[in-house]
Amino acid sequence: DDVVTQSPLSLPVTLGQPASISCRSSESLEHSDGNTYLSWFQQRPGQSPRRLIYKVSKRDSGVPDRFSGSGSGTDFTLKISRVEAEDLGVYYCLAGTYWTFGQGTKVEIK
Amino acid sequence: DVQLVESGGDLVQPGESLRLSCAASGFTFSAYWMNWVRQAPGRGLEWVAKINPEENEIYYAGSVKGRFTISRDNTKNSLFLQMNGLRADDTAIYYCTREVWWSLDYWGQGTLVTVSS
Fold first, then answer.
1. Looking at the complex, does the CB of residue A10 fall below 8 Å from at least one CB of chain B?
2. Span A30-69, pLDDT tens digits
3. For an engineered disulfide with A99, which of A88, B47, B59, B67 has Cβ 3.0 to 4.6 Å away?
């Protein structure tokens, strides 16, 4: 089975400080077309998920540039350069070619 | 603006059936793959099913295969999920989502399905 593992599952943060979430897949996410279909989603409390990043590093319209995605093959990272209060919530990665979400990382105030 | 509005969620008993609907607007519905994703209470996201615009490519998660059927009506800009043989572990919020580039760019607000006796 295809496995996608996020870490950490809980991330206490200090406002204004950076934060980083890892997403690892058991198999390479590089598609035969040369693209890598790894996305990141944010879910604020009581809301539907919202996509932040697609194809590893492409930011969706309206997403603040403090969010960035990187990685290749099986290892990917979502970084928040300076955490703001509105960033609190749960973050999920999605391995598109396997339609598997990571377990989620809860970003909360330290 | 793209809008996805789910409906049909309800409280049902184990073994019963339910049909979810999703009304799409603000984009050319017939041009996109569409998906259902669910989230059990307090849990993470689980992909459920997807369907291509022509309805000739359909895929399901192993947990629902044989019990759930995804379909669409492009003339009515609508997506459906027929759920049979419901079990307690099908209890979740069900989201209608639009697929682009093997990702899900728009999500509805979700509809709650509760399976309990």
1. no
2. 999 999 999 999 999 999 999 999 999 999 999 999 999 9
3. B47
CA gap B47, A26 in Å, rounded: 18
Both tokens assigned to B90:
């099908």
pLDDT of residue A2 exceeding 90: no
CB A51 within 8 A of CB A2: no
**Chain A residue with the nearest C-alpha to that of B95:** A48
What are the chain A neighbours of B98 within 8 Å (beta carbons)? none
Alpha-carbon distance of B103 to B47, in angstroms, equals 11
Q: Which two tokens stand for residue B13?
A: 């008993």
Is residue B80 within 8 Å of residue B19, measured between CB atoms? Answer: yes
Per the CB < 8 A criterion, the answer to whether B12 and B86 are in contact is yes
Q: Which residues pair with B79 in a beta bridge?
A: B22, B72
Contact criterion met (CB below 8 Å) for A101 and A4: yes
Query: CB distance B105–A54 less than 8 Å?
Result: yes
What residues 18-77 of chain A have any CB closer than 8 A to a CB of chain B? 31, 35, 37, 39, 41, 43, 48-51, 54-55, 60
Task: Please state, in angstroms and as integers, the Cα–Cα distance from residue B29 to each residue in A63, A93, B20, B69, following that order.
Answer: 24, 25, 17, 19
Task: Report whether B48 contacts B40 (CB < 8 A).
Answer: no
